[in-house]
Design brief:
Order of helices and strands: EHEHHEHEHEEEHHEHHEH
Number of helices: 10
Structural class: alpha/beta
Number of domains: 1
Largest sheet: 5 strands, parallel
Distance between the termini: 30 Å
Length: about 280
């Protein structure tokens, strides 16, 4: 039996809503050599940032929550207006490397260079050093977390190995908070493959909105039952179109009707788990 965590304000469970603001870099998840400024990818990215992002923020704010957005440095440099919108509306901005690097394939030196470059680019736009990190592709090495701590990050949301946040023990007695997620709560795999060439290869149709929403509700039922942490992962390119916003509205209505949810950003989660670090 899972021992329930005593969440703040006597909440039953936690909910963390996250965004991956990859813009045209999303294609590199499947095609590493893709040019994010290619006309097809750039057009889709523009729509996601200009139309999808405000819709998602409206839905999240209407639910009484804030998002934690993970932004690659390249996106901060090329689309600073989208990053500033997040800041202006009181949301948290974290880092997602620089340009969709697969950190699991890089040396320690190359990882640190990419992460630091991304961190500094995000920092330059927001005026605040990012506290959180999410690795592109979800790929890391054992050294990645040591590098994150060295660069001053408080937490990561990269792995999918638990139902609740936990501390990663690092050399020298240091610790880094990990906020894991489930792939079933990520919109991109459900909806991205209506592009050409197909992403990922072999997929033939867009998932039914009803079935995806059912997946997300059932996952929340499990979180609510066990008192764990629900980490929703969204991309404005896929979650931000007019029809899918109804999915988010319905999901947040469902969560709020059940009651007992503590909506938290990554930094709030870190403060709860590691108040003195």
């Amino acid at each position: 039996m899972i021992e329930k965590i005593k969440w703040p304000d006597n909440a039953n469970n936690a909910v963390m809503i996250t965004l991956n603001l990859d813009a045209g870099l999303f294609a590199r998840s499947y095609y590493p050599d893709a040019d994010p400024e290619d006309a097809d990818y750039a057009t889709v990215a523009k729509y996601g940032l200009q139309n999808g992002l405000p819709r998602i923020l409206d839905a999240v704010e209407a639910a009484g929550a804030k998002v934690t957005a993970f932004v690659p440095g390249w996106v901060a440099e090329h689309h600073p207006e989208a990053v500033r919108l997040l800041v202006e509306r009181g949301h948290e901005v974290g880092c997602r490397g620089y340009a969709q690097e697969n950190l699991g394939l890089l040396s320690d030196e190359a990882q640190e260079k990419a992460i630091k470059k991304g961190m500094e680019a995000v920092w330059a736009v927001t005026g605040k050093k990012p506290a959180g990190f999410r690795a592109p592709h979800g790929e890391v090495t054992h050294s990645t977390f040591e590098i994150l701590k060295k660069l001053g990050f408080d937490y990561s949301s990269t792995l999918n190995d638990d139902d609740v946040p936990y501390c990663i023990d690092l050399p020298g007695g240091l610790k880094l908070l990990e906020i894991p997620f489930l792939w079933a709560l990520y919109d991109l795999p459900y909806f991205i493959f209506h592009f050409f060439p197909p992403i990922p290869l072999g997929q033939g149709r867009i998932s039914s909105f009803d079935k995806v929403l059912t997946n997300w509700k059932w996952e929340y039922d499990g979180v609510h039952r066990d008192g764990t942490c629900y980490v929703l992962q969204l991309d404005p390119t896929t979650a931000g179109d007019p029809g899918r916003i109804f999915m988010l509205d319905e999901l947040f209505k469902y969560i709020n009707q059940k009651g007992g949810a503590w909506y938290a950003t990554g930094s709030q989660m870190h403060e709860f788990y590691m108040p003195n670090r």
